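Internal tracking record. Fields below are filled automatically when a chain is submitted to the structure queue. Please do not edit lines marked as system-generated. If the sequence contains nonstandard residues, flag them in the REMARKS field before resubmitting.
Queue: standard
Priority: normal
Entity type: single polypeptide chain
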Amino acid sequence: MQVSVVSTLKRCKSVFQCINKLSSSKLKSNFTPKVDVRCLCSSSRRYQGRPVYNGESSELYDVVIAGGGMAGRAMACALGQEPSLQNHKILLLEGAAKPEMGKLPEHYSNRVCALNPGAVDLLDSVGAWEEMVKQRVKPFCRMQVWDACSDAVITMNNDDLSENLAYIVENNVTIEALSTQLEKLSSNVRVDYETLVTNVHIPQQNVVDEANWAEVELHNGECVKARLLIAADGANSSIRKMCGIDVLGWEYGQSGVVATLHLSEPSENNVAWQRFLPTGPIAMLPLSDTRSSLVWSITTDKAKGLMQLKDEEFVEEVNNAFWDNSHHDPTIDSISQFFQGILSTISPEGSSVRQLPPSVISIDPGSRGRFPLALGHAMHYVKPRLALIGDAAHRIHPLAGQGINLGFGDVECLADKLVEAAKLGKDLGSLHHLLEYESSRQRHIIPIMAAVDGLKRLYSTDNQAVVLVRSLGLQATNAMTPLKNAFISGAST
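SYSTEM-GENERATED OUTPUT FOLLOWS
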């Protein structure tokens, strides 16, 4: 194997522990911010319409959110509906045009996400989930993951199949539902579409005075000031770069190929399928009784080749990726079958039979797309008057479907810290509670990132020794129901 799994995990663990130690040492400092009561009161007037310019031609806000993706919009909704923040002014800046509302496209989008129960709870709390269910949401109650190099398989589901593991939702459906809620919050949250941030100035020290608020320069020449600037502008965050926050990460040399698949026959289609190939994992996620969404992580050169194929040829490649057993080794299969027999005797309730995924007959014309895959982790999530959320703070391989779920976790955590600060009359941009947010999220996110990166590397080889070890490990995990339930519970938050 080109890269040692053990050495890679040790490197991830040591670096991430260093980051977490730095954050924790800041959090334990004896710093106590000095609050200017007059300053707090002067900006706590309820926002009504467009705020006026002050003498320095800068508009004043309590919170400015840069980036109107799913995480940014959810952040604006969470803050805008909070009673303790009703007298605070909030601004959301979005570079794209306002989405078309109330018209669901006939064809499914090729960009989807698997929302876990924790993300659904957040969306429900801001009123967006009800709107999403009215449009297009597809739950699944079972997931099957198996190795292309052996018979090893793991199935995940709740005991009685009555509870859903997650929900497959198109990104544009989530965006529209959150936008609908923002319109209802227009008295508290102002949204500026087609507005780009060109420069950012944040203070080097944690000072309450208005002169040390974050300054955000816009492409139209305007400037706004904020107690707190929240960067939600994606993996290539320009705000993160402007503020001098470095990123630890690496390219995977892979691309994610996506498409909307047509299944050979209608079915309940409530199972998510994922197969680990030596070139990367391929997943089929349910959209409806006859449609599924493809997410295929594969080497960049092969991904480019897939994009050039005719639709019929592409469909054949997809079916082969799910069904072909040419990577199997007879010796490994024999050992795996023997080991499975032992596990079935010890733990009959933990054994499961590998089901066959549905076959694909066609794809939506023009639904194929490709995007690069990488790992990225910001060295800091916060600075004085600045917080990063979503992909601006962390970028993860899609094999576990945790990207936006981690982002929504950021939203919930940061909103809780800001609400707590507002109730205590503290400055929203104070580094003290921002560091609490950073520490809390890093403790949750770093282990997930390390585990996903390790899995990606573990399954990116067909070395016989590695295949045997991982196959036996997957079978053992599948037989241990409490361990599987722990994984399901951890992925749900």
